[in-house]
Amino acid sequence: MNVRAALIATIAVAMGCGCAATQEAGAPFSAAARRQLVLERTTPAQVREILGKPVTITAGPDGRERWTYEYTRVSALRAVPFGRRVTVRQTPYERLVLTFRDGRLSECAYAVERYRTEGDLIVPAGSARESCGQPAR
């Protein structure tokens, strides 16, 4: 489930009841796991062992394969049934994109987007991008 769909589903559930709802998109992955990746050396099998199954795998016409990992958690809370007050929160959205060429990791990009709550809305609060994967020695 993509992040937008998770957000919509979570808010819809919380708005219809006096309850809390939480939806996760993807699976968490750690910075330590990202540091194990080595450009031009790490194979898809090794990545699957380190990070697990990606959210999506796409193949390009040039023979490259792109694996995308993502994770965020969205929660909504309505304290009173059918009341107007809904509290919505989202953890940082993390996205890791790995590109393989000839059966080896050729590119690695990591991005994180942070959010804050303004009233009943979740709004962007900043983002950061970094390359990842250690260079082959």
Task: Throw out a few tags for this protein.
137 residues, alpha+beta, seven-stranded antiparallel sheet, 3 helices, 7 strands, 47% strand
Structural class, from secondary structure content?
A: alpha+beta
Helix content: 10-25%
Along the chain, the helix and strand elements come as: HEHHEEEEEE
Number of helices: 3
State Rg.
18 Å
Structure at a glance:
The protein is built from three helices and seven strands; from the N terminus they run αβααββββββ.
Your description of this structure?
It contains 3 helices and 7 strands; from the N terminus they run H-E-H-H-E-E-E-E-E-E. The chain is α+β, with helices and mostly antiparallel strands and 137 residues long. The chain has one domain. Strands 1, 2, 3, 4, 5, 6 and 7 form a 7-stranded antiparallel β-sheet that branches. Strand 5 (93-101) and strand 6 (104-118) form a beta hairpin. The longest helix is centred in the N-terminal third of the chain and has 13 residues, at 3-15. 20% of the residues are buried.
SSE map:
Blueprint: H1 3-15, E1 20-26, H2 31-35, H3 44-51, E2 56-59, E3 65-78, E4 86-90, E5 93-101, E6 104-118, E7 121-131
Antiparallel strand pairs: 1-3, 2-3, 3-4, 3-5, 5-6, 6-7
